[in-house]
TrEMBL record:
<dbReference type="InterPro" id="IPR007402">
    <property type="entry name" value="DUF455"/>
</dbReference>
<dbReference type="InterPro" id="IPR009078">
    <property type="entry name" value="Ferritin-like_SF"/>
</dbReference>
<dbReference type="Pfam" id="PF04305">
    <property type="entry name" value="DUF455"/>
</dbReference>
<protein>
    <submittedName>
        <fullName>Ferritin-like domain-containing protein</fullName>
    </submittedName>
</protein>
<dbReference type="InterPro" id="IPR011197">
    <property type="entry name" value="UCP012318"/>
</dbReference>
Length: 271
C-alpha cells in the first residue's frame, strides 16, 4: 500500500536536510520515490490523522488562547509555538500536494518539493528559537485546521485555492503583525526570531505564487469570483484576514483589481 507517508517527513527532517544542498536532495527524492506519480492508476491513500498527533495535544482552535501582547517568555513561547505548528503542518501540506495529485507536469512536483524543503527550514529556524526559550514543539496544545482543510480538498483547484492561495496568503497578511508583536518584548532571541520571520515572509510569497500558478492551471475559469466562491464553500476552514498585505500579495501573483475586489467582499460578507 502506498500511503502519503511514502513521501514522508523522514525524507526531509533527517540530517540530510541540514548537511546536503537542496538541489542534491531534490534529485535523490525524485529519482527514488516519485516515479509512481506519473501513473494515475496507482491508488491514493491519504493520511487519516495528522502526523503530529503522536506528540501534540490537539484541541479545537477556540480553546487555544493566544496572547494579545507578549509580556513574558511564556507568552512569547506560546505565540512562537503556534507559528512553529503552522510551519510543521505546511511541510505535510506540500508533501501531500505532491502525493495526492497525479499526472501533472514535472514542474508541479518540483515546485512542491521545494516548498516542502523551505517549510522544513522555517520549522527548524523557529524551533531553534522556541528551544532557546526552554520550550519544545508539543509543549502547548495545537489545532488541526490545516490538516482538516487538506483532507477536505481532494480536487487540485480546491486545494490550491483554499490552502495555498487562501490560507497561506493569509500568512502574508499576518506576518507584519507578528513582527510588531515580537518587537514589543525585548529578549535575547528577538533578533534571531525577527530574522526567521523575514526569511519566512520572503519564501511564503514564492509559495503563494506557486499556489496561484497551479490554481490557474487547474481551474477552468480562474476568476476572482470563482476564487471567492471557493473560499465561501470552504468557509469552515477559512477566516477573513483583518488587513491584506497588498505589496506581498502583488508579489505573489494577485492583481491589484483582485485585491480591491477581495477587500470589498470581505467587508460586506461573512465567510
Amino acid at each position: 500500500m502506498l500511503e502519503s507517508t511514502h513521501i514522508s517527513k523522514h525524507h526531509i527532517l533527517d540530517s540530510h536536510s541540514a548537511t546536503k544542498p537542496t538541489k542534491e536532495l531534490n534529485s535523490q527524492i525524485l529519482e527514488s520515490n516519485l516515479e509512481f506519480l506519473n501513473d494515475k492508476n496507482v491508488p491514493i491513500y491519504p493520511l487519516q490523522n495528522p502526523s503530529y498527533a503522536g506528540f501534540c495535544t490537539i484541541t479545537h482552535p477556540t480553546k487555544i488562547r493566544r496572547p494579545k501582547h507578549i509580556k513574558s517568555e511564556q507568552s512569547l513561547a506560546k505565540v512562537l509555538h503556534s507559528i512553529v505548528h503552522i510551519e510543521y503542518s505546511a511541510i505535510d501540506l506540500a508533501l501531500d500536494a505532491m502525493y495526492r495529485f497525479r499526472g501533472l507536469p514535472p514542474s508541479y512536483y518540483y515546485d512542491w518539493l521545494i516548498v516542502a524543503l523551505e517549510e522544513e527550514l522555517h520549522f527548524r529556524l523557529l524551533r531553534e528559537c522556541l528551544n532557546g526559550l526552554g520550550y519544545e514543539y508539543g509543549n502547548f496544545p495545537v489545532h488541526s485546521q490545516l490538516f482538516d482543510a487538506q483532507k477536505a480538498t481532494s480536487h487540485l483547484s480546491d486545494r490550491m485555492a483554499l490552502l495555498h492561495r487562501g490560507l497561506e496568503a493569509n500568512g502574508l497578511d499576518s506576518n507584519p503583525f507578528i513582527v510588531h508583536k515580537v518587537q514589543e518584548f525585548e529578549h535575547t532571541t528577538t533578533p534571531q526570531l525577527l530574522e526567521a520571520l523575514a526569511i519566512i515572509l520572503r519564501d511564503e510569497i514564492s509559495h503563494v505564487k506557486k499556489g496561484d500558478k497551479w490554481w490557474k492551471y487547474s481551474c477552468a475559469s480562474p476568476t476572482t469570483q470563482n476564487f471567492l466562491a471557493t473560499l465561501q464553500h470552504f468557509r469552515t476552514f477559512y477566516h477573513t484576514p483583518k488587513t491584506l498585505n497588498i505589496q506581498a500579495r502583488l508579489q505573489a501573483g494577485f492583481l491589484l483589481d483582485e485585491i480591491d475586489a477581495m477587500q470589498m467582499y470581505f467587508q460586506n460578507k461573512i465567510l
